[in-house]
Specification:
The structure is a single chain. The protein is an alpha/beta fold. The chain has 3 domains: 2-148, no CATH class; 164-337, 3-Layer(aba) Sandwich (Rossmann fold); 342-391. The chain contains 19 helices and 9 strands. The chain has helices spanning 2-11, 18-21, 24-34, 39-54, 59-69, 73-79, 86-103, 107-114, 131-140, 142-145, 182-196, 214-224, 243-250, 273-280, 307-311, 317-325, 342-355, 362-376, 381-391; strands at 155-158, 164-166, 204-208, 230-235, 256-261, 266-267, 291-297, 303-304, 333-337. α1 runs antiparallel to α7 (86-103), α3 runs antiparallel to α4 (39-54) and α5 (59-69) packs antiparallel against α7. The longest helix is centred in the first third of the chain and has 18 residues, at 86-103. The relative contact order is 0.09. Residues 305-317 and 319-324 have low confidence and may be disordered.
């Protein structure tokens, strides 16, 4: 009883890592400490273990995740390349010692505390780990891991409540899954490499035919460069008004961010047009130094233009028309993904067929693939995938 209560009494002193103490795992531990003996105590223990299970089953790894994701004055100051005040550094060191003790608690410790057999209660894993050493290692790689929620996930979205949240089941696409379009993807990869290295990098528009892998390319880039500090935040077109908020949230973070806008197109009178235009032109309120914008569109000029727009009723309609049509030119790099010709389409089909074990004579495979594309109305990488899926 003394051991677990002692751990809790130490954790109650947390000030640098006070945010960790507000997380469900720690509040469940607090509820266990405060619970009366008997049924109430056992129920509180079960709730505590349930939180550990949500994190994978290891108390130690749960604690490591919590301190890694915590946004506190110590990590923020370090991320800015400054040295924290000695009082903050001293407190952080002491608190990490407390978390070392907490993370090393075992099922046996709780069984003894409740005066029951270890076999009677749900178990969890834990190991003795120096949290000070673990945290210092993270700080040395701060530009690789960052802090807060960005330390553990690679892709994020903006919720309807305007909160940046991780995409738990994010697309794990990698470049080895692609066939063709090497030249187009190389341009995006090289631009991202320049961004990581702190050299001038362009905002990128990936445009062209549907199903050619534009969106998958952006996600593959984010996955490929995760270990080098790249994170992706996806925004819908109707969320572009929140760009200044997103930029403010990531400004100062040591990581590099790709703001991803998929399937982008505007009407001439679209309210979101001006916000994107401001971000692309580098407006201080809509741009962060550690962010670039990658967008995809099936339209080369992004703007949905009608013949009525060409007539228009503006006094200077030519100037207005040029402003809308030139939005794509504000992207520093425009990469065109054209629909594959017959040769490339059939190559994609053959590679996919081999990959998924489709046994069919090549001539028959190609005839069926062409017939499938004819029914779909076009050839594309997506069409090839759908054809192989239909065979499987």
């Amino acid at each position: 009883m003394k051991k677990i209560n002692g751990v809790y009494e130490n954790l109650a002193l947390a000030s640098v890592f006070i945010g960790v103490m507000k997380k469900p795992l720690c509040t469940a531990f607090s509820a266990y400490i405060r619970a009366e003996r008997g049924i109430e105590k056992r129920a509180a223990y079960a709730a505590f273990v349930a939180e550990i299970y949500k994190g994978g089953g290891s108390l130690t790894k749960c604690v490591q995740t919590l301190i890694s994701e915590d946004e506190n004055p110590y990590v923020k100051t370090t991320a800015q390349g400054k040295k924290p005040l000695s009082c903050i550094e001293k407190s952080a060191k002491k608190e990490l010692e407390f978390f070392t003790e907490f993370a090393a608690l075992t099922t046996a410790d709780f069984a003894e505390d409740m005066d029951v057999s270890e076999m009677q209660i749900p178990s969890f894993d834990s190991v003795k780990t120096d949290m000070n050493a673990f945290y210092k290692k993270r700080l040395r790689s701060i530009r690789k891991y960052g802090y807060g929620i960005f330390s553990s996930h690679g892709m994020f979205r903006l919720s309807d409540d305007k909160e940046i949240e991780p995409i738990i089941s994010a697309d794990n696409t990698t470049f080895d899954k692609f066939i063709g379009y090497e030249e187009e993807r190389t341009k995006v990869i090289e631009n991202t490499r320049m961004f990581i290295e702190g050299r001038p990098a362009a905002n990128v528009l990936l445009c062209g035919d549907a199903g050619t892998g534009k969106s998958s390319t952006v996600k593959a880039v984010a996955n490929a460069f995760f270990e080098e500090g790249i994170r992706l935040i996806e925004l819908r077109k109707d969320q572009l008004s929140s760009l200044p908020y997103v930029m403010a949230k990531i400004s100062g973070n040591p990581l590099k961010f790709i703001i991803f806008i998929d399937d982008l197109s505007f009407n001439r009178s679209d309210d979101h047009f001006s916000m994107l235009k401001a971000a692309l032109e580098g407006s201080a309120s809509a741009k962060a130094e550690n962010a670039v914008i990658y967008a995809t569109s099936n339209r080369r000029h992004i703007i949905k233009e009608s013949f009525g727009d060409r007539e228009g009723d503006d006094v200077h309609r030519n100037d207005t028309l040029q402003e809308t049509l030139s939005l794509s030119e504000r992207f520093g790099l425009v990469v065109l993904f054209s629909k594959p010709n017959k040769q490339l389409y059939l190559e994609i089909v053959r590679v996919l067929a081999k990959k998924y074990g489709v046994t069919m004579p090549t001539s028959e495979l190609e005839i069926q693939a062409e017939a499938f594309a004819l029914r779909k109305g076009n050839r594309s990488a997506r069409c090839a995938e759908q054809f192989i899926d239909s065979l499987l």
